[in-house]
Write a structure and sequence with these properties.
The chain contains 8 helices and 21 strands. The chain is an alpha+beta fold. The N terminus and C terminus are likely disordered. This is Type III secretion apparatus protein PrgH/EprH.
Length: 428
C-alpha cells in the first residue's frame, strides 16, 4: 500500500461523471476541494502578450479541477480524525458514521453527506467513489452508468447505487405521464361530447318552440334526462292545440304533452306510491319545482324525496324544499274562511283535515268561495287540507219546493231547477 511521507495511506478517487468519467485520481486522506464546471481561465492581461495567463486553480491549495457542465456543484472531501480504518460496528462490520464526509457546495447552499468507501456517492449528476489502494472496486462502482440528474440530491447509498431502481422510476414516471395524458384526453373527449349534445339539444328545443309559437296558452318546453322533450301547457285547450300542432309538424323528437294541473297530480301520485311524506308539489316553475314537506324531515328523507321527484319528472333541474306544519296550514284556512264570512266546521281525517262550509251563498259569495279554495289548493294542495261545501237541507221543511229570489227552484237538497219565464210560454 502506497503511503506518503506523513505515514497516511493513499486513497483512490474514481470520477463517475463528465468528460473524466471512469478516471482514477490518487489523493491523500486530507481535506481536498474539487472545483467542478467549465474551464476556468485567468482572463487578466499578461505582462507580455506571449505569456498566457495560467489556470486560476494552479494557485489554489489542496484543490483539483474536474471539467463538467456550467453550474454544477463543487464538493469537498473531509476525513474526520483521519484514521487508517473507520470505526466499525463489530457485529456487522459497517461504518458507524461513514468513512468520510462530503460537502456539496452550490448557489443554493451547502449539503453535507456521510459516505462509505467503495460505494457510489451521488448528488444530482455528480457521482464518484473512493477506495483504499489495494482494494478492488465493488461491483456497483465498476458497473456504474451515468443517468439523468435528479431533481433533488440523493443521499449516499450503501452498496449498489440503485441503477435498476432508476430505470423502474423512469418507467413509473412514463406510466404516470401516459396516464395523465389519457385522463386529459378522456376529459377533453367528454367535454366535446357534452358540448355537441348540448348544441343538439338546443336545436331540438328550438324546433319545438317554433312549432308551438302560436299556442293559445303558455307552454313550458323542457328537455328531459331521458331524451324526451316535455311540453307543459297552462290549460287543457292549450294542450290539445299543442298535440295537434306537433302531430302536423311530424318532428322526429319524442315529445310528451301534459297540462300543468294534471302533471302535478301525476307527480304527487308517484310520490305517494313511493311512500314520501309530503304536503304538495308546486309547479309554478316546472324545471325548479317546490317540494313542501311536513315538519323538519331528516336529511335522508329529504334526499329520498328529492330523488323520487327527479325520477317522476326527468325535466327537473333543481328542487327547492320547503318545510310546513299541518297546524299552520289549518290556521291559514281558518283565517281565509273567517275573512270570507263563511260558517264551517273542521272534520279530522287521516293525515289531514277537511273544512266543511255549511251555509247558503249567493252567486257572488259562491264565486268568492271558489276563488278562495282555488288559491288555497294551488298553494297547499288538497292532500292535507281541503274544503267541502254542504248545502242546507232544511229549506224544504213542509214544502214541495222552494223558490229562490232570482226565480231558482230548489226541488231537493242536491237539485236546483231553473224554469222558463211564464211570459215566454204565452208568447209562443
Amino acid at each position: 500500500m502506497n503511503k506518503p511521507d506523513s505515514g497516511l495511506e493513499v486513497l483512490q478517487l474514481r470520477i463517475l461523471f463528465g468528460p473524466l468519467f471512469g478516471s482514477d485520481i490518487a489523493i491523500p486522506p486530507g481535506e481536498i476541494f474539487f472545483c467542478v464546471g467549465e474551464q476556468v481561465i485567468d482572463d487578466r492581461p499578461a505582462e507580455h502578450p506571449e505569456n498566457h495567463a495560467g489556470h486560476l486553480l494552479e494557485r489554489a491549495v489542496d484543490t483539483l479541477y474536474i471539467p463538467h457542465r456550467a453550474g454544477a456543484p463543487n464538493f469537498r472531501l473531509r476525513f474526520p480524525g483521519v484514521p487508517t480504518q473507520a470505526a466499525r460496528i463489530p457485529e456487522t462490520g459497517e461504518a458507524a458514521r461513514g468513512d468520510f464526509e462530503v460537502d456539496f457546495l452550490s448557489a443554493d447552499g451547502c449539503v453535507t453527506q456521510c459516505a462509505a468507501f467503495n460505494t457510489v456517492c451521488r448528488f444530482g449528476d455528480i457521482a464518484f467513489a473512493l477506495r483504499r489502494q489495494g482494494e478492488p472496486w465493488s461491483e456497483a462502482v465498476a458497473r456504474y452508468a451515468p443517468h439523468a440528474p435528479s431533481r433533488s440530491p440523493d443521499a449516499a447509498e450503501p452498496g449498489a447505487p440503485g441503477e435498476p431502481g432508476d430505470s423502474g422510476e423512469r418507467a413509473s414516471r412514463f406510466a404516470l405521464k401516459l396516464g395523465a395524458l389519457l385522463v386529459v384526453g378522456v376529459a377533453l373527449a367528454a367535454l366535446a361530447y357534452w358540448q355537441v349534445q348540448r348544441y343538439v339539444g338546443a336545436q331540438k328545443l328550438a324546433s319545438v318552440n317554433g312549432v308551438l309559437a302560436g299556442a293559445p296558452a303558455p307552454n313550458a318546453i323542457l328537455p328531459g334526462d331521458d331524451g324526451r322533450i316535455y311540453v307543459l301547457s297552462a290549460s287543457q285547450d292549450g294542450a290539445e292545440w299543442d298535440r295537434e300542432a306537433l302531430l302536423k309538424a311530424a318532428l322526429p323528437e319524442k315529445i310528451e304533452v301534459a297540462v300543468i294541473g294534471a302533471e302535478r297530480q301525476r307527480i304527487e301520485r308517484r310520490l305517494d306510491e313511493a311512500g314520501v311524506d309530503f304536503v304538495t308539489v308546486r309547479l309554478d316553475t316546472p324545471e325548479r319545482p317546490e317540494l313542501i314537506l311536513t315538519g323538519a324531515a331528516p336529511v335522508a328523507d329529504r334526499a329520498r324525496a328529492i330523488g323520487e321527484l327527479r325520477r317522476a319528472a326527468p325535466y327537473v333541474r333543481d328542487v327547492r324544499v320547503i318545510d310546513a306544519s299541518l297546524g299552520a296550514i289549518e290556521q291559514e284556512a281558518r283565517n281565509a274562511l273567517d275573512k270570507a264570512g263563511a260558517r264551517y266546521r273542521l272534520l279530522a281525517r287521516r293525515g289531514g283535515a277537511t273544512f266543511e262550509v255549511a251555509t247558503s251563498f249567493g252567486d257572488e259569495e259562491l264565486a268568492a268561495l271558489q276563488n278562495l279554495m282555488r288559491s288555497f289548493s294551488h298553494k297547499w294542495g288538497t292532500r292535507r287540507v281541503d274544503f267541502k261545501i254542504a248545502l242546507r237541507t232544511d229549506w224544504l221543511k213542509g214544502k214541495s219546493y222552494r223558490e229562490g229570489g232570482d226565480g231558482y227552484v230548489l226541488l231537493d237538497h242536491a237539485s236546483w231547477y231553473f224554469p222558463q219565464p211564464l211570459e215566454g210560454a204565452h208568447s209562443r
